[in-house]
Amino acid sequence: AFAPERRATCAGGQRVKNAECCAWFPVLEDIVPNMFGGECGDDAHGALRLTFHDAIGFSRSGGGGGGADGSIIVFNDTELMFNANAGLDDPIDTEAPFITKHKVTPGDFIQFAGAVSLSLCPGAPQVGFFMGRPPPKAPAPAPDGLVPEPFDSVSKILARMSDAGGFSPEEVVALLSSHSVAGADTIDPTIPGTPFDSTPSIMDTQVFIEVQLKGTLFPGPEPGQGEVESAVAGEMRLESDHLIARDSRTSCFWQEMAGNQSRMQQQFAAAFLKMSMIGHNPNSLIDCSDVIPAPPALPANAGPHLPPTLDQKDIQQACPTSAFPTFPVLPGPAETVPAIPQA
Ligand code: HEM
After folding, report:
1. What span, in angstroms and rounded, lies between the C-alpha atoms of 71 and 63?
2. Pocket test for ligand 1, best of 52, 110, 337 (most atoms within 8 A of CB)
3. Residue ranges for the binding site for heme b?
4. What is the β-pairing status of strands 237-238 and 227-228?
5. Which residue range or ranges hold the Plant heme peroxidase family profile domain (predicted)?
6. By CB atoms within 10 Å of each CB, which of 46, 193, 296, 315 scores lowest?
């Protein structure tokens, strides 16, 4: 169903299915060192979050927004005023000069940068990338209210995700694998870079395990809006992640992700590619997936585990039909997860 393939060899010797894709290698070679510093850190996390907040600005039932169209950058005067987009000024300031320099559309660049950001995160799948998003059409800012908030109900989030991208509850869970390489800057502004799991620089399944633990503490002095207690010092838990892990529509699939690295990778990659096409006819886009590098594998010592001093009894079983898998407890004293260094 996609555009006919036209294989080519690019100037740097890379072979691609579609000749247009050669244009992305210079972008890749620039942004990996110069935008991401070659690491799965704050800038990579911000670029990944931006893919979601741009793409989700779309409604199948009408009411505006062009989806993954770059409107969050082009119309940032409007969209950055929305509460749900707090903190996105950082990745937008980071990306804007590269968009100007490489003369690509902002919609393409945002999704490209997100795919490349994942290539820097050990354990992430090699996700696809399609090019060909036109500039956002005027009047094109997405309206307010389309980006899920961490204090929204599960019903509201599932309905919004379905209306935006036709996502099933399972696909929503799969997309939340992204919170494995993530943290919050604005929920509690006194502790920027507070991660959602104990391993924010690798894309493992710890977020699915750690969010299922009984919450006992807040990482900062006071909880922010949409924050609930986490199980590990220095770690933040979003209320939305907490509820999705425990809701009857999503809990069994959440549990299935825990410790199942290859399944998480497959499910996330498929849902992420689908998200990148929101607002577009896939037939009008060109497959440039062969430009996206393969991420490093997880380090050998990065198996799924329970944080030190916790144990299986601390897991809050939610899926009614099967037991949460068991994991070894990391040895040592209770850990305090360090903040993600801010770029
Ligand atoms: C569906 C409901 C979702 C909700 C309610 C939600 C909510 C949030 C919130 C509140 C933050 C912290 C923002 C801050 O204070 O800095 C965050 C961070 C993040 N989110 Fe989500 N999110 C959702 C889905 C997604 C999806 C689908 C993706 C990507 C595929 C994603 C990727 C990220 C990333 C990478 C960060 C970390 C940003 C950073 O560390 O700078 N989220 N999310």
Report:
1. 15
2. 52
3. 179
4. antiparallel
5. 44-292
6. 296
Closest ligand 1 atom number to CA of residue 84 = 10
* pLDDT single digits (tens) 57-90: 999 998 778 999 999 999 999 999 999 999 999 9
Instruction: Say whether both 59 and 175 belong to one domain.
Output: no
Q: Which of 45, 53, 280, 305 is flagged as catalytic?
A: 53
Count: domains in the chain: 2
280 has catalytic annotation: no
Interface predicted TM-score of the whole assembly (ipTM), two decimals: 0.99
Kindly report, residue by residue over 264-318, the tens digit of the pLDDT.
999 999 999 999 999 999 999 999 999 999 999 999 989 999 999 999 999 999 9
CA distance readout (Å), 73 to 31, 52, 256, 282, 321: 17, 13, 36, 22, 44
What's the CATH code of the domain at 210? 1.10.420.10
Domain membership flag for residue 230: yes
Would residue 329 count as lying in a domain?
Answer: no
Cβ atoms of 105 and 70 closer than 8 Å: yes
Cα(179) to centroid(ligand 1), Å: 6
51 assigned to some structural domain: yes
**What range does the domain containing 287 cover?**
14-147+274-291
Q: Which atom of ligand 1 is nearest to the CA of 186?
A: 15
- Count CB atoms within 10 A of the CB of residue 61: 7
Are residues 224 and 118 part of one domain?
no
Indicate the pairing of strand 286-287 with strand 237-238: unpaired
